[in-house]
């Protein structure tokens, strides 16, 4: 019995739509499909439609589907139109082959998923690499423990793109267009197959399967989006995936997905469907695998119920990655000094193919490979303003006596006034804004001299350091980070989880300001609790410092520290106040105010300095040592331009609390 060909409408004929036309022509010759219509904002010339008869052309999708009776729509339109046009096609009664990425944001993906579910129609996503038999082959190998325990999956990709690539359409190279998420970039568009393949190998398809997502974006070309980037994912079972890619290579290098096992490696080249197994003491074993066309698979699903290879619901984890890229900090520009010339008008980044491979081999981010254009620094934005930089890998030249640690510097007001200082002459161990404790189980994590009861401050060989382990998430407004606090011998004394968020303050009728929300949790690494001491607990009166600490610039003049009840260092130091404010004026005459509050059930007394230097922080162990298995503190700091008085500060705190 003959089967009628599936009637198809192709939406988006120019660009990648040309590839779909060629594929449709192949299947039409076999009698599998019939091109019933094409939908595009620009007319399609007859030469492009040769061999298809006279398919109807239109600029509106839903009416075209109804007029032609189309059963299937191929959606090859710009990324930011996928959700709207996909919804339109499904509600008009057509199954959907949707180009990758499925949407520009997770919210759009969710809305489209709900329509797929409510209509009961099929939506296949165009991850052609997932149609390769190489992936089930590798999954079976891993399931049979063919490589031993897997410690991670690394992906490397380096392609060349001319300048015209980023000018091919109004949405190309954009993060957003007319307020709508586009999220076009190296990770989410040309190398989307790389991420999808790695996730599939790791068994991570559902959104909940990803526990951590860390993104770094860079750009060589004068575009809004990234052309060079990397991401590290941590799957729920602990598997680590890193993807490092660039569109700024000297030529095309085939991307590699490298599975690192205890007893060998498996490398998938998804563009050629080849797998290379490497085991110690054995020759490399290379196999090549067939690939199923996703349109053919969808047609078979429509006609006889064949299982879809890439249904929309299996791309949830991938869309979590897309959304993390969307929310990430703006791509960091790479200076021309790091370029190695041009290729077809496109810019070439020196040594990028080797760097992407190093990332895949070491499961490392660019910033962890000591690349000069990828410093260990995270820029924070409050709204549309850059307000702080977080130095998560301290300068290796810092002496051990400063207790090296990640910290924020420089921190600025919205007006651009610097309100932090690092390594000042008066106290070289004061490092911007961060967490520093004078004594944790006998190790000095504050820096400088250690106070010894009955002897006073002494230089001791007892300094520790804080080591960045990894970010569990990074966005333009902040991050969550894991750290180890280690002693002079490198032994872990404590573990920390730190979350820092910058947000624009919207209090009305008050000066422009933003808020730094800083939370840290210190945990004992074993069963024995931590003992935290301050110099005050050892006999140095008033020296209750230790915990969150903000060092302001010593160059500021007309300094003032105050609370709701008191003025000056003597009144504030050791006070149990709801808030503390510190104000000053820069050498150029621009005033600033910092307002500190503590949130949560545990509140500490304030350590405050104003005369010798400006610095504020709640003391974890003011009157007595703190013995604990875990301690959490949250400090919120309003950073304001101008010199605020007590009444204005109180009103600002009220509005902050209400919000």
UniProtKB/TrEMBL annotation:
<feature type="domain" description="GFO/IDH/MocA-like oxidoreductase">
    <location>
        <begin position="138"/>
        <end position="266"/>
    </location>
</feature>
<dbReference type="InterPro" id="IPR029475">
    <property type="entry name" value="DUF6807"/>
</dbReference>
<protein>
    <submittedName>
        <fullName>Dehydrogenase</fullName>
    </submittedName>
</protein>
<dbReference type="InterPro" id="IPR000683">
    <property type="entry name" value="Gfo/Idh/MocA-like_OxRdtase_N"/>
</dbReference>
<dbReference type="Pfam" id="PF01408">
    <property type="entry name" value="GFO_IDH_MocA"/>
</dbReference>
<dbReference type="InterPro" id="IPR050463">
    <property type="entry name" value="Gfo/Idh/MocA_oxidrdct_glycsds"/>
</dbReference>
<feature type="domain" description="Gfo/Idh/MocA-like oxidoreductase N-terminal">
    <location>
        <begin position="7"/>
        <end position="127"/>
    </location>
</feature>
<dbReference type="InterPro" id="IPR036291">
    <property type="entry name" value="NAD(P)-bd_dom_sf"/>
</dbReference>
<keyword id="KW-0560">Oxidoreductase</keyword>
<dbReference type="Pfam" id="PF22725">
    <property type="entry name" value="GFO_IDH_MocA_C3"/>
</dbReference>
<dbReference type="InterPro" id="IPR055170">
    <property type="entry name" value="GFO_IDH_MocA-like_dom"/>
</dbReference>
<dbReference type="Pfam" id="PF14100">
    <property type="entry name" value="DUF6807"/>
</dbReference>
């Amino acid at each position: 019995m003959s089967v009628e060909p599936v009637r198809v409408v192709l939406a988006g004929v120019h660009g990648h739509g040309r590839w779909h036309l060629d594929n449709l022509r192949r299947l039409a010759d076999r009698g599998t499909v019939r091109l019933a219509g094409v939908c595009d904002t620009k007319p399609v010339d007859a030469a492009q439609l040769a061999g298809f008869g006279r398919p109807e052309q239109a600029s509106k999708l839903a009416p075209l589907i109804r007029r032609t009776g189309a059963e299937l729509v191929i959606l090859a339109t710009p990324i930011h139109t996928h959700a709207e046009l996909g919804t339109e096609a499904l509600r008009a009664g057509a199954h959907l082959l949707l180009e990758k990425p499925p949407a520009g944001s997770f919210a759009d993906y969710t809305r489209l998923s709900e329509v797929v579910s409510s209509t009961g129609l099929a939506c296949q996503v165009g991850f052609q690499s997932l149609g390769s038999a190489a992936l089930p082959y590798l999954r079976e190998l891993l399931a049979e423990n063919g490589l031993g325990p897997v410690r991670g999956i690394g992906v490397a990709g380096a392609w060349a793109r001319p300048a015209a690539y980023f000018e091919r359409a109004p949405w190309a190279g954009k993060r957003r267009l007319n307020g709508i998420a586009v999220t076009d970039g190296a990770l989410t568009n040309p190398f989307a197959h790389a991420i999808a393949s790695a996730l599939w190998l790791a068994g991570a398809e559902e959104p909940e399967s990803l526990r951590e997502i860390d993104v770094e974006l860079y750009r060589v070309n004068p575009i809004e989006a990234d052309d060079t980037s990397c991401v590290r994912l941590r799957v729920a079972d602990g598997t680590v995936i890193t993807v490092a890619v660039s569109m700024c290579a000297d030529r095309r290098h085939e991307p590699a997905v490298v599975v690192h096992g205890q007893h060998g490696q498996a490398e998938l080249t998804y563009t050629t469907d080849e797998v290379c197994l490497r085991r110690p003491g054995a020759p490399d074993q290379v196999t090549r695998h067939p690939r199923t066309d996703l349109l053919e698979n969808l047609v078979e699903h429509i006609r006889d119920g064949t299982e879809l290879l890439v249904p929309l619901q299996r791309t949830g984890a991938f869309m979590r990655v897309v959304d993390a890229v969307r929310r990430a900090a703006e791509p960091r520009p790479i200076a021309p000094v790091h370029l190695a010339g041009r290729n077809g008008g496109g810019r070439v980044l020196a040594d990028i193919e080797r760097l992407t491979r190093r990332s895949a081999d070491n499961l490392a981010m660019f910033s962890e490979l000591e690349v000069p254009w990828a410093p260990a620094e995270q820029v924070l934005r409050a709204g549309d303003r850059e307000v702080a930089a977080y130095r998560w890998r301290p300068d290796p030249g810092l002496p051990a006596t400063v207790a090296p640690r990640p910290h924020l510097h420089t921190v600025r007001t919205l007006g651009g006034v610097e309100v932090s200082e690092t390594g000042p002459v008066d106290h070289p161990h004061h490092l911007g804004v961060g967490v520093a404790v004078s004594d944790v189980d006998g190790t000095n994590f504050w820096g400088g001299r250690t106070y010894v009861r009955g002897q006073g401050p002494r230089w001791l060989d007892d300094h520790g350091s804080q080591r960045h382990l990894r970010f569990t998430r990074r966005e333009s407004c902040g991050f969550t980070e894991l750290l180890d606090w280690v002693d002079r011998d490198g032994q872990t004394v404590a573990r920390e989880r730190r979350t820092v968020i910058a947000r624009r303050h919207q209090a009305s009728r008050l000066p422009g300001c933003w808020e730094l929300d800083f939370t840290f949790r210190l945990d004992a690494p074993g069963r024995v609790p931590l003992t935290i001491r301050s110099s005050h607990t050892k006999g140095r009166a008033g020296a209750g410092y230790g915990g969150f600490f903000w060092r302001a610039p010593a160059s500021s003049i007309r300094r003032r520290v105050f609370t709701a009840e008191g003025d000056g260092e003597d009144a504030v130091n050791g006070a149990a106040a709801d808030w503390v404010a510190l104000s000053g004026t820069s050498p150029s005459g621009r005033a600033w105010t910092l307002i500190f509050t503590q949130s949560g059930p545990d509140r500490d007394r304030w350590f405050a300095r104003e005369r010798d230097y400006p610095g504020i922080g709640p003391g974890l162990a003011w009157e007595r040592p703190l013995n604990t298995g875990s301690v959490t503190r949250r400090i919120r700091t309003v950073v304001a331009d101008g010199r605020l008085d007590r009444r204005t500060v109180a009103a600002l705190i009220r509005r902050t609390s209400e919000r």
